[in-house]
User: Which sequence fits this backbone?
């Protein structure tokens, strides 16, 4: 086909246990890529997927022998974030599409809409489903995260995204782990955009639920926002108010005529002061840990069992 794009693009696709839509998803993406790009590759991240998903990949390759397909088998089930980080590290495209699952609830033309948006000067562009499609827990998490985050762009539910090579290099230059890709991308200082789409009726595949997302959410709140520090400060202030109130009551009781049980007032004063000191120290510790985690924390590690070039 004439006028196909000269950029080399990579598609990193997360394949998980119980995935039944691998073959159809690859066919859909390949149909779009073949019509618009001269050179491209597929990188399938096998994170504990069963034989049915693997058979779908091999069947696709058998029907499209000219397409570059790599299958990266993780050493054990790492979860979405670590597996996708490994796939992005392995990719060589000028632009990298990150498909967090093979679930399809959008028109295939959305893939190119997102890519063209990236060509307009945006380094990270995401396909965003309607807010009503997100679970209540997810909406609550995004609200808390965006409220306590200092980044220019709010994060939200994303179906897939395209990342420029400049954005990938910028993130890798940090020399630190990527516990939550969306947070790091939005904190990179580069231009971020999103395209909201209407969900189609003819959905294909099952939505993937990451079993480790609760840990990922907690890590993101601690590392990328001031939530932990402000929450601990709130507790310290609350304990300070309680300490002052207890101190006043203790003083009134100690010097008043109606005395309580002997020794009660000094004990209450000591307990109030002790709790205030503990929460104050914890606040300072969390603040220092917050700074350390933001700038110096270990690089991402993952174990790859094998890499297949089909």
Assistant:
């Amino acid at each position: 086909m004439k006028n196909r794009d000269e950029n080399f693009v990579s598609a990193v696709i997360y394949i998980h246990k119980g995935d039944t839509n691998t073959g159809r998803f690859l066919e859909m993406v390949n149909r779009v890529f073949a019509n618009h790009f001269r050179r491209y590759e597929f990188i399938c991240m096998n994170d504990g997927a069963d034989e049915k998903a693997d058979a779908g990949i091999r069947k696709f390759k058998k029907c499209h022998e000219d397409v570059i397909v790599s299958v990266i088998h993780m050493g054990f089930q790492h979860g979405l974030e670590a597996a996708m980080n490994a796939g992005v590290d392995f990719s060589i495209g000028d632009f990298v599409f990150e498909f967090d699952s093979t679930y399809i609830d959008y028109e295939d033309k959305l893939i190119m809409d997102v890519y063209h948006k990236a060509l307009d000067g945006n380094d990270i562009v995401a396909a965003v489903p309607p807010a009503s499609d997100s679970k209540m827990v997810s909406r609550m998490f995004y609200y808390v995260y965006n409220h306590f985050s200092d980044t220019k762009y709010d994060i939200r539910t994303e179906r897939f995204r395209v990342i420029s090579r400049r954005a990938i290099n910028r993130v890798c230059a940090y020399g630190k782990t990527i516990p939550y890709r969306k947070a790091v991308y939005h904190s990179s200082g580069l231009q971020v955009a999103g395209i909201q789409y209407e969900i189609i009726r003819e959905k294909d595949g099952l939505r993937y639920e990451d079993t480790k997302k609760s840990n990922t959410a907690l890590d993101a709140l601690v590392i990328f926002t001031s939530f932990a520090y402000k929450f601990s400060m709130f507790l310290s202030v609350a304990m300070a108010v309680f300490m002052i109130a207890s101190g006043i009551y203790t003083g009134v009781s100690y010097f008043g005529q109606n005395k309580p049980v002997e020794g009660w007032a000094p004990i209450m004063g000591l307990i109030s002061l002790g709790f205030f000191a503990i929460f104050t120290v914890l606040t300072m510790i969390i603040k220092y840990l917050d700074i350390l985690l933001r700038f110096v924390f270990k690089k991402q590690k993952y174990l790859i069992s094998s890499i297949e070039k089909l």
